[in-house]
Amino acid sequence: MNYRKLGRFSVKVSEVGVGGWLTHGRSIDDSMTTEIVRCAFDLGVNFFDTADVYNQGKAETSLGVAIKGIRRDDLVIATKCYFPMTDRPNDRGLGRKHITESVHNSLKRLQVDYIDLMQFHRFDAETCLDETVRAIDDLVRAGKVLYWGVSEWKAQQITDLVHTARELNANPPASNQPLYNMFSRSIEDGVLQACEQFGIGNVVFSPLAQGVLTGKYLPGQPAPDGTRGADSSSNSFMQRSMTDENLTRVQALKAFAAENGLGLAEFALAWCLRQKQVSSVIIGATKPAQVEANVRASGVQMEASVWTQAEKILAGQ
């Protein structure tokens, strides 16, 4: 496993991290979560990502069980807040009250004394940036949080946030967690540039397009039983990538990856990691074997012409 700094900050995260959005506390039980986390850790993964809203706190609780017995110093644990946890008016957003209570509740569920990386899950148009920045800075100074960042913020929002932190002499954001994969490349137009300007590292989610870029879904055929694509409760974000046209191109890309000595998932993750602004790719897994396959992406190097050809294949050119 290779490790990268989180932007300009000194903490190092594994190039491949493990998340639990649709798995921890939901599609797999605590024992399987533990098995996956231990397998990942043994393979060099130190970055584990979750959020309070994932399965209404159950994902954090499951991760807390899974990391028991692993030396805390060897882990970089990330979580998030913003989305409503209940229907109560203050149990949402990025105001001081909700941020503070979210951090304390996450600490309890994770059974840890501090959070390595606290992320703001979305931009909050109803809260002034200075309130948000002062709240998280106080938690950093109190030792409850080490680093903080955002998820799915636009380039200008990130810029305004950094400037606000500077004006307040507060600890600045260290990370951004955006959607990024070979189908979804919008962050290449502004967000990555802003992050590079301010020394912010990107820990990207859905790098395999929720499994579409593994090649297991075939054109003209229904999604295999037991896969996310066959689960109507969790496959809504996949539908735009699941056309026969796209799936045919994915199969062509799979063959191209094989010509270059790689499995498709390994290839697609390495494509994300080709960006120097990407610190880690966050994978999901329902079994240890998936982790074992995906961590092989760490350290993969290809000529730029290989990535260019891969992009042309996926674009049908």
How many DSSP helices?
Answer: 10
User: In the CATH hierarchy, what is the superfamily?
Assistant: NADP-dependent oxidoreductase domain
What is the chain-wise order of helices and strands? EEEHEHEHEHEHEHEHHEHH
The description of the largest β-sheet is: 8 strands, parallel, barrel
**Total beta-strand segments:** 10
The structural domain count equals: 1
Q: Give start-end ranges of low-pLDDT stretches.
A: none
Order of strands across the main sheet = 3-4-5-6-7-8-9-10
Would you give an account of this structure?
The protein is built from ten helices and ten strands. It is α/β, with parallel strands linked by helices and 317 residues long. It has an eight-stranded parallel beta barrel with strand order 3-4-5-6-7-8-9-10, surrounded by four helices. Strands 1-2 form a two-stranded antiparallel ribbon. Helix 1 (30-42) links the parallel strand 3 (16-19) and strand 4. Helix 1 (30-42) crosses helix 2, helix 2 (58-66) crosses helix 3 and helix 4 (129-141) crosses helix 5. The model has no long low-confidence stretch (mean pLDDT 94).
Please give a quick description of this structure.
This protein is α/β, with parallel strands linked by helices and 317 residues long. It has helices at 30-42, 58-66, 96-110, 129-141, 155-167, 191-198, 244-259, 264-273, 288-294, 304-314; strands spanning 3-6, 9-14, 16-19, 47-49, 76-81, 115-120, 145-151, 175-177, 201-205, 278-283.
